[in-house]
């Protein structure tokens, strides 16, 4: 209670249930794809581009655990963004890298994320199936690609 009281006056505690406070402070446990889509921003692409439409379809088809893992990959949080002032949540930014970034093979690179900015770099894959496979691989392997994880788990650091 003392920690929460540093951010919220104690006299407001009785106005909320524990579940309401959790949702307000941490976001919801479920990922609402429609809400993410409604607030999304685009750079170098648009919502009608084939690879962007395929991305939203793949995200919609994922189960709750996969969606949560996607958020962890793209935002470093496993819960959906809580609505802020004006009722809007943090906006997912979808960017498309320049074609030369793929070295001539659009299906080569994995999607990447900048978690500080809730930003996803999504290549223009040749099909929805390729996008699904690449996104799943990137999401599943993201912790293994993190330099902090590699350093922490390196020889001599395991017991630190």
Automatic annotation (TrEMBL):
<keyword id="KW-0833">Ubl conjugation pathway</keyword>
<feature type="domain" description="HECT">
    <location>
        <begin position="1"/>
        <end position="148"/>
    </location>
</feature>
<dbReference type="InterPro" id="IPR000569">
    <property type="entry name" value="HECT_dom"/>
</dbReference>
<dbReference type="GO" id="GO:0004842">
    <property type="term" value="F:ubiquitin-protein transferase activity"/>
</dbReference>
<protein>
    <recommendedName>
        <fullName>HECT domain-containing protein</fullName>
    </recommendedName>
</protein>
<feature type="active site" description="Glycyl thioester intermediate">
    <location>
        <position position="116"/>
    </location>
</feature>
<dbReference type="InterPro" id="IPR035983">
    <property type="entry name" value="Hect_E3_ubiquitin_ligase"/>
</dbReference>
<dbReference type="InterPro" id="IPR042469">
    <property type="entry name" value="HECTD3"/>
</dbReference>
<dbReference type="Pfam" id="PF00632">
    <property type="entry name" value="HECT"/>
</dbReference>
């Amino acid at each position: 209670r003392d920690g929460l009281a540093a951010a919220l006056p104690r006299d407001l505690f009785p106005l909320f249930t524990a579940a309401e406070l959790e949702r307000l402070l941490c976001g919801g446990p479920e990922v609402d794809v429609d809400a993410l889509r409604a607030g999304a921003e685009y750079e170098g692409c648009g919502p009608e581009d084939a690879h962007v439409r395929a991305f939203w379809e793949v995200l919609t088809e994922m189960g709750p655990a996969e969606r949560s893992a996607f958020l962890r990959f793209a935002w470093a949080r496993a819960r959906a963004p809580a609505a802020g002032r004006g009722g809007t949540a943090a906006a997912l930014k979808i960017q498309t890298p320049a074609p030369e970034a793929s070295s001539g093979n659009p299906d080569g690179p994995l999607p990447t994320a900048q978690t500080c900015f809730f930003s996803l770099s999504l290549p223009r894959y040749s099909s929805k199936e390729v996008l699904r496979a690449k996104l799943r691989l990137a999401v599943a392997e993201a912790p293994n690609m993190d330099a902090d994880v590699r350093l922490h788990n390196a020889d001599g650091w395991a017991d630190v």
